[in-house]
């Protein structure tokens, strides 16, 4: 029964059973920050509309997303997650892989003994 209802008793409340009624109702916003100051302001609760975030790689209202975020010579990229429309707890997991270019030169030296 997908659209069914369930009761929210005292036991469920005490055990933090705060799952959304339907799975598609659970979503969050992902913001990509390129500098530490904006990431810190986001942590401190400043409104996102006043912060500089990467619009091209941030996602609003997503359940699942994947993709490549180019570093553009940045050493650190900051992610901010926001649960702005749900009163329930959203559980997130993040998998990240980084690659980098490396150039190595070798000089072979031969000697005769």
Give the quaternary arrangement of the chains: single chain
**Unreliable parts:** none
Amino- and carboxy-terminal Cα gap: 84 Å
Order of helices and strands: HEHEE
Q: What radius of gyration results from the CA coordinates?
A: 22 Å
Please describe the biggest sheet, giving its number of strands, its sense, and whether it closes into a barrel. 3 strands, antiparallel
The 3D shape can be described as elongated
Concise overview:
The protein is α+β, with helices and mostly antiparallel strands and 113 residues long. It is built from 2 helices and 3 strands.
What does this structure look like?
By secondary structure, the protein is an alpha+beta fold. 12% of the residues lie in helices and 13% in strands. It is built from two helices and three strands, in the order αβαββ. It has a three-stranded antiparallel sheet. It is elongated and about 85 Å long.
Distinctive features:
113 residues, 3-stranded antiparallel β-sheet, 2 helices
How is this fold's topology laid out?
Blueprint: H1 10-14, E1 28-33, H2 36-43, E2 59-62, E3 78-82
